[in-house]
Amino acid sequence: MARQEATPPLQPEVEAVTTDAIRVIVADSEPIFRVGGRKIVAVEDDIRIVAQVESAAAAVTAVGRFNADLILLACSLNEPPAETVSSILSIAPEIKIVLVMIEPTEEETVELLRLGACGIVTRSIAPDLLVRCIRKVHSGETWLDSKGVNWVIEAYRAQASQLTLPRNRVQLSPKELQIIAGVTQGLRNKEIAQEVGTTEQVVKNYLRKVYDKLGVSDRLELALYCMHHRLLENYSKPAAKTKAGATEEPGAAAPAIGDGTSRLA
Hints:
Blueprint: E1 11-12, E2 22-27, H1 31-42, E3 47-53, H2 56-65, E4 70-74, H3 81-91, E5 96-101, H4 106-115, E6 119-122, H5 127-138, H6 146-163, E7 168-171, H7 174-184, H8 189-196, H9 200-214, H10 219-229, E8 256-259
Parallel strand pairs: 2-3, 2-4, 4-5, 5-6
Antiparallel strand pairs: 1-3, 7-8
């Protein structure tokens, strides 16, 4: 039985956590939901609650202190969820965020997914579905109900229609094209870095520059842009990797493509 006393800002779980268990932080201002979440996963061998917090600030602190895989983040906390999501990912970029909301709107759903959230559930979600959600998101999938999926599809469809409009011409370097090719192949930044022969941080820096040049804001929009503009149609993969930190050799002029300026609101 849980002790009925004031919850400290950070409430770590003291039970042993197996190395292959999914480590979860529960962030909710309502004690009943924190207790309920803990009871739901208590019978699951592959999921463990490693901390419980009751404020957005404590949630940000917790992700920096505990080596968690996923956080169940209630949108009822005392900060706008978009700000909390951004703060959490700036500290722990690899953590999976599942938002718990009363009734998500189309605007909230699209914005939170674009900011990096991996799933959205409602407070009325069935216990078995919550457990399934945790496992699916941990494995790399995105969790939305059918309405949320339709909202996201429509948002990207609208974005794609904008990406087909004529643009000003810009140039991409051979290395930028090589990194874009890795993204369209579904490679992670670490895998792209190994293929290019550089570091993961350098790949991230290149992607930010590419996003700014093309007017896109994430990997999916970049892939859509490539598809509509045949960006890699004349691209040839380099024969050999370059060494990390090596200066890029000047090459043939990169193909000119459209410069996207519109973004999804």
